[in-house]
Amino acid sequence: MRRLAPWLCAFAALFAAGTMAEHAWRGVRPHIPEIGRKELEPTLGQGVLLGILGGLRTVVADLTWIRSYVLWERRDRAGCEALMRAACALDPHSRYFWENAGYAVGFDLAHWEIRRRGGYAKVPAETQERLFHAYARRGIEILEEGRRHAKTTTPLLLCAAQLAEIKLKDHRLAASYYQTAAEAPDAPWYAARICAQTLWEDGRREEAYRWLRQYWLTRMLPKEDGFPDDLQRLRTMEQVLGVKPELRIPRQAWER
Amino acid sequence: MSSAISVRHLTKDFRVGLRGLKLRAVDDLSLEIPRGQVYGLLGPNGCGKSTTLKIVLGLVSATAGEVSILGCPSATPEARRRTGFLPEAPYFHKFLTGRELVRYCAQLSGVASADVAAAVEDALGLAAMTEAADRPIGTYSKGMLQRIGFAQAVVHDPELVILDEPTAGVDPVGSAAIGRMIHAMRAKGKTIVLCSHLLGQVEQVCDRVAIMDRGKLVLEGRVDDVLSRRDRHVLTVEAMTPTAREAAEAALAAHGAVVTSVTHPRRSLEDLFRELVTGSRDA
Amino acid sequence: MNPMKASFQRVSWIARVTFLEAVRQRFFAFLLILGAAMALSSVSFRVLDFGHGELKFIADFGFGGMFLFGSVLAVVMTAQLFFSEMDNKTALTLLAKPLGRGEFLLGKFAGAWAVLGVFVAVLSVLLGVVLWAREQELLLLSEQSGKVPPTFSASGLAQFALLQWLRLGVVASIVLAISAVARTFLYAVVVGALAVVAGQLQWIAQDAVLKPSESPAYEAVLWLTSRLLPNLQQFNIGDALVLSSAGVESGAVWAVTLAGAAYMAAYVFLGALLFKRREI
Question: pTM for the complete prediction?
Answer without folding.
Answer: 0.82
